[in-house]
Amino acid sequence: MTSRPHLLLWADSAAAYVDAIEAAGLAGRVALECVARKAKPSPEQLARAEALMSYGVAPGVLGAMPKLRWVQAMTAGVEQWLALPDLPAGVTLTCARGTHKEAMPENIIGALLYAAKPYAEAAANQKLRKWVQRPAQPLTGRTLGILGLGAIGQEVARIAAALGLRVIGTKRRPGPVEGVAEVLPPERTTEVLARSDFVLLLLPSTPQTDDLIDAGRLAIMKPTAWLFNFGRGQLVKDEDLVAAMKAKKIAGAVLDVYRKEPLPPEHPFWTTEGILVLPHIGGPHPERDRFVGRLLVENLARFLDGRPLREVVDREAGY
Question: Angle at which helices 103-116 and 119-127 pack, to 10 degrees?
Fold first, then answer.
């Protein structure tokens, strides 16, 4: 028997994380056990695990892990973890916040360009051999409103400001942010909606943000404004957005997240004019395991040394 803490890596890409742990010189300090994502750990593996890394677990699993002290979620969103009825109060839950910092800002900027520039229209017209000139709308001088100025929002703001956009947004604890002209508290969300030419949703899913963008808030937006949702599907009231698009209350929407994924074929988002359905491509990156692996080994070193962990989830806030 080893006295080293047991870490259970419950993921299909466990090899990338094992390599990261070895490269960080931590392999000799921890007992690693790897289980494929679709497989089930043995009762013995669950019983001896003191740390767990996984995308998520079914209710009842954590109750079979009496030694568990730390869970590293492989995603930034943790609503599935917080919904578990048996998530022990004494277990530290950390998330993968910030690991989308390269991929997601680039994809969001792509959405901005899609909304402002006529490339998609030109591609469609090319198939018809149809010559249609439409001036590209400038980004310079327009206002981008970001609801949720976390790590991703701040990186988007930096890039957007360099493109000439004026950026405003909300943050739970307002303070100066590079590239952001005004940082407002969540209570002033309606101001951001009313003043923005583009509204970007990057909020987590919590009881306070569920159905945040409903008919009332869509009515506050400019009729020329675009809505981008790269946060959580629960932020938008689906039927209200469809109705707003049909009534031309706003100019368009680019959606990357949904209440149910994959988006069901019968969902009206597919056929509503002005809505672009993206298949949740905002965060994935060919080397994402490398980014998450860096976070894992840093937190593992802290765990082994008894130091505070990074990206600890505030259970009361929900993220």
Answer: 70
Kindly list the domain boundaries of the chain, sorted by start residue: 6-99+286-305, 103-277
pLDDT in the model for residue 2:
56
Element (H, E) at 116: helix 103-116
Distance CA 252, CA 223 (A): 9
**If phi over 0 gives left and psi between -120 and 50 gives alpha, with beta otherwise, what is residue 88?**
beta
Q: Which two tokens stand for residue 80?
A: 């599935």
CATH architecture, range 103-277: 3-Layer(aba) Sandwich (3.40)
Instruction: Answer whether 0.70 is exceeded by the pTM.
Output: yes
CA distance 91 to 84: 13
- pLDDT score recorded for residue 300: 98
Cα angle vertex 165, ends 163, 168, to 5°?
Answer: 135
For 167, phi and psi rounded to 5 degrees? -110, 130
For 116-154, the pLDDT digits (tens) are: 999 999 999 999 999 999 999 999 999 999 999 999 999
Residue by residue, what is the 3-state secondary structure of 212-247?
A: CECHHHHHHCCCCCEEEECCCHHHECHHHHHHHHHC
pLDDT given for residue 13 in this prediction: 85
